[in-house]
Amino acid sequence: MSLSMYEASIPVFVRMLGNLSTILAKAQANAEARSIEPKVFIEARLAPDMFPLARQVQIASDTAKGCAARLAGVEVPSYPDTESSFAELQERIAKTVEFVQGIQAAQLEGSETRIVTLKMRTGDLTFPGQAYLLHFALPNLYFHVTTAYAILRHNGVDVGKMDFLGGV
Amino acid sequence: MSLSMYEASIPVFVRMLGNLSTILAKAQANAEARSIEPKVFIEARLAPDMFPLARQVQIASDTAKGCAARLAGVEVPSYPDTESSFAELQERIAKTVEFVQGIQAAQLEGSETRIVTLKMRTGDLTFPGQAYLLHFALPNLYFHVTTAYAILRHNGVDVGKMDFLGGV
């Protein structure tokens, strides 16, 4: 059975969103144990001009749902980016996973060459589906999940590499 | 043309190692411009019990060369992990790219099901090649390149998302 666009996207997204959920649950428990206001973590940044934790989670969600939808040729669901608590971030992840899991392998057949256009501030970006998945969506997803992890590690949350990789 | 193990690995590794090289070059220039001793960046960490920048680069290299070699069924080249300057880190990246680029598409044919065994401190980890690539090697590579980026951003180096993604 050869590698498919489906295997390289949907199960990867589901797994990494699940790992992000685990990491956030550990952060919430850590905040409670150390009597730290949850917003301290949710608004934490690694640099003044980097996004805070909540935005990292929202962009990880956007990357996964956007890629799954575009490769399948269906409309990208729009979420309002209003999450400001761990419970709301967990809901955001859960609804993203639900959407992504709803995409079937048959919908991604031939998506290697499906043309994907992204509207960026700097203009349109156009890719064949395979380049979009491998060189844009996956690096972006991993970038934002890793940055969420790094923000929390920097703030003393006891997460480890196995939480990031999940179930190895 | 359907997605292949080669396309999902070798060009991704080469691209991300190239982006890591660009990010380190910007860090070196930034250190010079701000009269900061390069070791300050090279030894910087996001948490006391996380690896410093140099080790992040070494592990990114290890992940790429290890995955390329194991999927191809050839010996993993061993590098001594002695880099302590930007020039040495750039050499490490360059020799990794050279090794990875030497792996041909034909060597990865059928590697979806090739059994890969990793010797970990906690015991052996065994995967079919596809799961090893998608759920272990790629997340690890992105984790360490993102963490290198985050260490530098946290230290005020003017790198941006486009440096991380490379040539989008």
Automatic annotation (TrEMBL), chains A, B:
Organism of provenance: Metapseudomonas boanensis
Any Pfam family: DUF1993
Name used for this protein in its record: DUF1993 domain-containing protein
Coiled coil: none
Superkingdom per UniProt: Bacteria
Classification via SUPFAM superfamilies: DinB/YfiT-like putative metalloenzymes (SSF109854)
